[in-house]
């Protein structure tokens, strides 16, 4: 800005006298007003009048504040070039009104454009551009940038040209009606590209493409425009082509070009580019391993299999790969491994590559897997590296692979035996520890095979047989899983009983007990019958299909592993999910906190704990600071301004692709499902305790740009989970979640439901008294009906969308259906004239509401599968249903209250009685209200009963019996790993205590 | 299998493998985006086959403000490694070395005199690693860190300011052989290295507020410096 800022206030012009300066700096507004008025009268300088208006805007009175808005409005209307000092004073004074009372793009933006057009060479012109960019007024910013570009067209400062192009392009991205701007940006860049290609050397004043950022901006614009032919042609050009850029050490274009070409299926060009890029390294034109990345090798191999002359292509792949294999010894471990994986990749994608290999009883794929594991079996990432490939093996190959694994074991054993004679004790013990690491990997791989459909064969009468163990089985084979539990437990106990191995675990990449614990726990969870939660109403209770004993054993085993590896993230996350399923939210929270999910990573990771948390444990929200506080603070800080965080820095640095990426990231963050989740969870928790909502959800500052058409985005990161599952089935996190993950559909439904609750709970301010009550009442009714109509239509649209139910739990499905029906019923009730019969749709809608509500009530009852020894387990793991039953009951009750109170108000206002509700409508609403009230009493009793059950003694024995009562091989194996029943007692204590804590929180919930 | 490429903002949704490691700090969004906005080529990531970020380096190019040009602590145009981290599962594969080399290449391309970084004097693994890459101790910054990694009873720890000369420094003017003997106060680093600006970026303070807080004693200058500590967890 032209003026400086001190203590957050603008510094006045130097010509202003000290007395006024001091009063302004001190914020002594009454003095400022008095002095400025006096100076304005004496000096006839409008600047002093502006100071006075700004000072008035700092006072509390709304009349004082409106003066500055009027002044700005006049400036906009009079079409004259404004005084920049006055303009900046006003901009400062209006800082709190922008986006609310005035739009920057309608006021200050155009005023700044007007000023810059009149003073294009002033340094303040650049500051005006910054101001518009930082307010994200792209229209004004683009106009200023165009003016600056014209003004400085022949100077060496090329930023103006690219700011102009970038802003022109951004404008077209932000508003689809401005597509022509995209064309304009493309044309300018095309001219620049031609100039670059055709000039032997660019001068500093030439308007060509020089830097990597400028070149990549050009390609981005082409891509966005869908100018495929131009993109491909330019990509192969001598100066701006991808290879030419690579030679200059610029990798970005190459990577982005491959992404685009893959989407278009341009395999011939992908093949050529990858080949030539890899050759550049071999020929010394770039560093050897510059493009020796996973992605390049994968694309290279895939492209070779898809090009017209695949045979020659495969040959070329082999030649290049061989050259890299020759160079492998000089590479750092990262590239050595990348090359090893490239061999695996080509073996799997290009079978022809191994045609001339020597005969072997093993398939080339298995052979290469064996060779790879020979080198890397003891590395932490070994399982993830080979998982995908192993899942692709045929059953015969799987058998071969299982034969290879002990082969590696033998080699390690031989090394171990050798070490007995020749090596030091330390190396001997390290070797023993590595042996156990291999055993752990073998267990994980065996588990993986149980998730691969190739291990099953169909038999007559629809049954199937496990090819691994020859037993009748379905996927996963229970017999194989039991075997894994027993064998992995034996290995686990072997480690724990060998002091020497224990001492050498720190020398390994990973504690093998952790891998073994994962294999055992996953097997137990599968044996327990745990499946991904769906919207199937019959599977609302965890114990409907899950064996509680086996499930508890898995949790116990993982919890006991936590003692040995407390900092392992995978283990902690797994336990957090399992405890949430088990209804132990407070204990899950204790495990979650040390993970340190804070600041920037919250958007991606917080849903792993906070999604649906208010429905599991409203008690967590008791206290002065809600658990979601950090999350809210992250969004408040990151989305405070309209512009993307730090965007001007990117403009100044000439980072044009950063500008585009940051803008896209910002747009996505503002539409984040996690953001919606945060607001909704807090609101639901507040409703539990009868606290006032801070504002209506539509007016929430973080959500005020969300409309029903906004596509909300889920970016939850499931990467840190230990996923032992094959790609043929769902990933592990889908088994562990309470229900389907965040989605656009669920987020919108939650948003709409909250809007409906806002409508029901709206109360006008106490001091509000309408001058014309009848007129206001009519308008209120119209507004209510319009809102209900909108809500009902949007809710129906989302609920009836083809896949919506797959994004909801059964309880959520019923709740949102009820809200949708309620909005429709209320609309009918309020809009039906008293003089005519009420539409029959009202009674059918209320009947549907009651039916849906009652079906949800029945799901709270104990299921036939509830463990007899522990009947309380079912309700403890079904708190989510309890929560949505309560929410549904409240919505019904408030709808009924809204209707009756509306009727009462109308009757007292309009004595003719014509504007009240129809008798039948009123009666329907009252019946609904009574049903909800009765249900709420029942629910309160349900919680009280639960509390009493948990207060009873004998929990320790009952839970332990559930875990170990069968005494079979599996139970004995797990008992051995966790150190017996005595060791498990402390764990049971923690679980029961967490249940008690959760129910205590529910005990404080309001049921009225 | 690993792909090394330039950072992009979407990677912030895939940082879990690195940032859930207790030794890796997670910053505010503005901090990451500032680096991406100003020095995108100095912000590189290593990505695994599932799209998870398993390592990253953040660096910047800067010099001391001109006002310090004649100060003995003036820092000429150089690159600074702000954070380098590798997920536990990807350690010992040379990813830290590779990322550092990439940053050095970018520093050379930007005609920097040297690359520098701060490391705890007790972080022997990191020091050995950097020495193996050609870095040497330029000076010891006393009480640079506000805690002690090995001794909880101590409230501070010294840092080595380590440097590696780039191609521009043909005469090796910006390195020392006996750097361990040169001790400086943290305020020297702060004033000369333009660290205030970075601290402001982290804390969202205004410059004047920061100065006032330091002057009135409500903010310790070392606390300010801790916000800018280099992170090194990759060995």
TrEMBL record, chain A:
A GO CC term attached to the entry: NatB complex
Superkingdom field: Eukaryota
Native species: Chaetomium thermophilum (strain DSM 1495 / CBS 144.50 / IMI 039719)
Pfam families tied to this protein: NatB_MDM20
Protein name: Uncharacterized protein
Similarity section: Belongs to the MDM20/NAA25 family.
From TrEMBL, chain B:
Residue span, N-acetyltransferase domain: 2-167
Assigned GO CC terms: NatB complex
PROSITE patterns tied to this protein: GNAT (PS51186)
SUPFAM superfamilies reported for this sequence: Acyl-CoA N-acyltransferases (Nat)
Gene3D superfamilies cross-referenced by the UniProt entry: 3.40.630.30
A single MF term (Gene Ontology): protein-N-terminal amino-acid acetyltransferase activity
Keywords of the record: Acyltransferase, Transferase
Protein's name according to its UniProt entry: N-terminal acetyltransferase-like protein
Organism, scientific name: Chaetomium thermophilum (strain DSM 1495 / CBS 144.50 / IMI 039719) (Thermochaetoides thermophila)
């Amino acid at each position: 800005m032209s003026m400086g800022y001190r203590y957050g206030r603008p510094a006045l012009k130097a010509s202003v006298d000290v007395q006024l300066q001091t009063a302004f700096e001190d914020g002594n507004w009454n003095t400022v007003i008095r002095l400025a008025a006096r100076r304005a009268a004496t000096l006839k300088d409008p600047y002093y009048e502006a100071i006075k208006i700004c000072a008035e805007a700092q006072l509390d009175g709304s009349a004082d504040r409106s003066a500055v808005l009027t002044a700005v409005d006049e400036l906009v209307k009079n079409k004259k070039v404004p005084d920049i000092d006055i303009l900046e004073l006003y901009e400062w004074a209006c800082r709190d009104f922008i986006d609310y009372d005035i739009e920057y793009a309608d006021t200050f933006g155009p005023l700044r454009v007007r000023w810059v057009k009149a003073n294009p060479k002033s340094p303040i012109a650049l500051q005006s551009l910054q101001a518009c960019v930082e307010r994200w007024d792209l229209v004004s910013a683009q106009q200023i940038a165009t003016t600056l570009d014209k003004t400085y067209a022949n100077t060496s400062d090329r930023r103006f040209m690219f700011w102009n192009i970038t802003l022109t392009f951004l404008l077209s991205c932000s508003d689809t009606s401005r597509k022509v701007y995209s064309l304009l940006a493309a044309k300018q860049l095309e001219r620049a590209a031609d100039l670059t290609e055709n000039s032997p050397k660019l001068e500093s004043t030439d308007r060509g493409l020089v830097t990597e950022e400028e070149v990549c901006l050009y390609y981005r614009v082409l891509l966005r425009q869908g100018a495929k032919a131009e993109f491909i042609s330019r990509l192969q050009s001598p100066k701006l082509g991808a290879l030419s850029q690579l030679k200059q050490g610029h990798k970005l274009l190459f990577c982005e070009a491959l992404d685009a070409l893959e989407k278009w299926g341009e395999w011939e060009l992908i093949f050529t580019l990858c080949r030539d890029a890899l050759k550049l390294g071999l020929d010394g034109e770039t560093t050897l391993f510059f493009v020796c990345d996973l992605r390049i090798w994968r694309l290279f191999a895939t492209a070779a299999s898809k090009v017209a002359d695949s045979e020659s292509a495969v040959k070329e792949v082999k030649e290049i790969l061989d050259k890299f294999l020759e160079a492998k010894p000089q590479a750092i471990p990262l590239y050595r491994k990348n090359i090893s994986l490239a061999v695996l990749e080509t073996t799997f994608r290009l079978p022809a590559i191994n045609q001339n290999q020597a005969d072997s009883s093993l398939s080339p794929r298995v052979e290469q897997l064996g060779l790879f594991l020979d080198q890397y079996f003891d590395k932490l990432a070994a399982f993830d590296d080979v998982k995908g490939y192993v899942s692709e093996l045929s059953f015969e190959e799987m058998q071969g692979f299982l034969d290879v694994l002990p082969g590696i074991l033998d080699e390690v054993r031989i090394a171990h035996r050798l070490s007995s004679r020749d090596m030091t004790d330390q190396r001997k013990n390290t070797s023993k520890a590595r042996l156990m690491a291999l055993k752990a990997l073998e267990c994980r791989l065996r588990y993986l095979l149980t998730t691969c459909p190739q291990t099953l064969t169909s038999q007559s009468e629809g049954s199937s047989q496990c090819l691994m163990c020859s037993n009748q089985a379905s996927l996963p084979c229970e017999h194989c899983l039991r075997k894994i539990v027993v064998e992995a437990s034996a290995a686990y106990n072997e480690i724990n009983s060998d002091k020497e191995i224990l001492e050498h675990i720190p020398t390994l990449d990973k504690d093998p007990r952790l891998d073994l614990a994962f294999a055992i726990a996953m097997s137990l969870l599968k044996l327990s019958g745990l499946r991904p939660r769906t919207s199937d109403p019959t599977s609302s209770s965890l114990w409907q299909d899950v064996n509680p004993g086996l499930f508890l054993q898995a949790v116990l085993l993982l919890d006991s592993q936590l003692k040995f590896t407390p900092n392992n993230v995978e283990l902690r996350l797994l336990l957090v999910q399992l405890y949430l399923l088990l209804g132990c939210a407070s204990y899950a929270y204790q495990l979650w906190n040390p993970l340190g999910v804070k600041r920037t990573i919250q958007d991606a990771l917080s849903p792993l704990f906070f999604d649906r948390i208010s429905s599991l444990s409203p008690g967590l929200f008791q206290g002065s600071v809600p658990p979601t506080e950090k999350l809210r603070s992250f969004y408040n800080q990151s989305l405070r301004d309209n512009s993307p965080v730090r965007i001007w820095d990117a403009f100044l640095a000439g980072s044009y692709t950063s500008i585009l990426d940051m803008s896209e990231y910002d747009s996505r963050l503002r539409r984040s499902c996690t953001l919606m989740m945060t607001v909704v969870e807090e609101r639901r928790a507040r409703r539990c305790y009868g606290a006032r909502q801070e504002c209506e959800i539509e007016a929430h500052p973080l959500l005020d740009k969300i409309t029903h058409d906004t596509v909300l985005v889920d970016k939850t990161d499931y990467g840190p989970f230990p996923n032992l599952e094959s790609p043929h089935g769902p990933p592990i996190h889908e088994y562990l979640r309470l229900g389907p993950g965040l989605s656009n559909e669920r987020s919108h439904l939650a948003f709409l439901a909250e809007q409906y609750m806002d409508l029901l709970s709206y109360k006008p301010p106490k001091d509000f008294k309408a001058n014309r009550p009848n007129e206001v009442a009519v308008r209120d009714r119209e507004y209510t009906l319009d809102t209900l109509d909108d809500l009902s239509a949007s809710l129906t649209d989302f609920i009836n969308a083809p896949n919506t139910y797959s994004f909801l739990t059964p309880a959520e499905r019923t709740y949102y259906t009820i809200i949708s029906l309620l909005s429709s019923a209320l609309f009918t009730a309020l809009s039906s004239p008293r003089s005519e019969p009420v539409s029959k749709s009202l009674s059918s809608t209320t009947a549907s509401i009651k039916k849906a509500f009652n079906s949800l009530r029945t799901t709270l009852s104990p299921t036939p599968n509830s463990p007899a020894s522990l009947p309380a387990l079912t309700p403890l793991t079904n708190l989510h249903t309890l929560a949505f039953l309560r929410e549904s009951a409240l919505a019904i009750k408030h709808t009924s209250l809204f209707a009756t109170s509306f009727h009462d108000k109308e009757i007292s206002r309009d004595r003719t009685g014509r504007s009240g509700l129809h008798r039948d409508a009123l009666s329907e609403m009252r019946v609904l209200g009574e049903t909800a009230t009765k249900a709420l009493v029942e629910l309160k009793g349900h919680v009280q009963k639960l509390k009493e059950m948990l207060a009873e003694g004998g929990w320790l024995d009952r839970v332990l019996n559930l875990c170990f009562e069968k005494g079979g091989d599996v139970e004995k194996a797990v008992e051995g790993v966790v150190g017996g029943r005595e060791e498990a007692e402390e764990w049971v204590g923690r679980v029961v205590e967490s249940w008690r804590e959760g129910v205590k929180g529910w005990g404080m919930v309001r049921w009225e | 299998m690993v792909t090394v490429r330039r950072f992009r903002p979407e990677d912030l949704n895939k940082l879990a493998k690195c940032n859930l490691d207790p030794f890796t700090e997670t910053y505010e969004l503005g901090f990451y985006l500032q680096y991406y906005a100003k020095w995108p080529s100095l912000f590189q990531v290593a990505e695994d086959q599932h799209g998870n970020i398993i390592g990253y380096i953040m660096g910047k190019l800067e010099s001391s403000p001109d006002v310090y040009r004649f100060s003995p602590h003036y820092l000429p145009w150089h690159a600074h490694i702000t954070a380098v981290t590798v997920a536990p599962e990807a350690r010992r594969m040379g990813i830290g070395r590779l990322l550092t080399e990439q940053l050095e290449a970018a520093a050379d391309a930007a005609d920097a005199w040297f690359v520098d970084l701060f490391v705890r004097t007790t972080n022997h693994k990191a020091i050995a690693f950097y020495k193996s890459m050609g870095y040497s101790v330029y000076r010891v910054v006393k009480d640079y860190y506000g805690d002690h990694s090995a001794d909880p009873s101590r409230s501070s720890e010294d840092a080595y300011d380590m440097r590696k000369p780039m191609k521009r420094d043909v005469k090796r003017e910006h390195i020392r052989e006996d750097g361990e003997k040169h001790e400086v106060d943290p305020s020297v680093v702060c004033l000369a290295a333009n660290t205030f600006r970075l601290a402001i970026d982290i804390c969202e303070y205004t410059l004047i507020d920061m100065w006032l807080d330091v002057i009135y004693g409500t903010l310790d200058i070392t606390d300010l410096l801790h916000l800018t500590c280099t992170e090194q967890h990759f060995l």
